[in-house]
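Summary of Year 1 activities. Much of the first year was spent building the evaluation harness for sequence design. The harness presents a backbone, in tokenized form, and records the residue chosen at every position. We chose the following record to illustrate the format because it has been used consistently in internal testing since the harness was completed.
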């Protein structure tokens, strides 16, 4: 789809920044109090680990494609046991 690991890392960092901004804006502009501002900050801040995890998964996928391995399998099960398919790397 054209999404790279760097895009996901950038989204994770943006989520951290947006979390702080949403907390600050809610704290200063809403009359609901600090509890509501905290909820906004936490809600948006929880996206960051997901974006970072997706970035790591995409980085692994990009690395395997760069190595030119024939399949997307990380393990080879041809001999009945699990052996790493990229041992020589």
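For this record, the design step produced the sequence shown next.
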């Amino acid at each position: 789809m054209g999404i790279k690991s760097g895009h996901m890392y950038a989204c994770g960092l943006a989520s951290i920044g947006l979390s702080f901004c949403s907390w600050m804006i809610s704290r200063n502009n809403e009359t609901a109090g600090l509890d509501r501002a905290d909820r906004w900050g936490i809600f948006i801040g929880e996206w960051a680990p997901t974006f970072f995890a997706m970035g790591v998964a995409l980085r692994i996928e990009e690395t395997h494609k760069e190595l030119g391995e024939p399949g997307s399998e990380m393990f080879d099960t041809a001999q009945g046991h699990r052996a790493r398919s990229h041992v020589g790397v």
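The helical segments are 5-29, 34-45, 47-67. Quantitative recovery figures across the full test set are reported in Table 2.
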